[in-house]
Amino acid sequence: MRSMISELRRDAWRWRRGRQGSGYDKMLLLTARWPLPFDCYLIRYPDGSAIPPHVDPVGKGRHYRLNLILKSPKAGGEFVCAAPLFSSRRIKLFRPDLCEHSVTRVEGGSRYVLSIGWVRGARKH
């Protein structure tokens, strides 16, 4: 519990560069390791940013991610995933550990996404 609180103090509510090195920023809003490991981020894709195709492996369990598109740019910024579990204009549910995914180049504005991820079966019961 103490490490989770220190992690939140260090990382929460601050814009950080995204892992893909492609110009997007993320802000950790909430995270927990128990009873179900999860995280919740606000992701900002400024004009000109994109995410190349990739997967997000996990050591154990099944990784799920629910992306809610809060604001779309004038063009681009499209989520690309070959096999989403569910996809509509503003809601994307997928397995980032199994399915290659990407975001096309954002043009004419910025894109904002609320992204909630969790891992099932990560802990032994």
Automatic annotation (TrEMBL):
<protein>
    <submittedName>
        <fullName>2OG-Fe(II) oxygenase</fullName>
    </submittedName>
</protein>
<feature type="domain" description="Fe2OG dioxygenase">
    <location>
        <begin position="36"/>
        <end position="121"/>
    </location>
</feature>
<dbReference type="InterPro" id="IPR005123">
    <property type="entry name" value="Oxoglu/Fe-dep_dioxygenase_dom"/>
</dbReference>
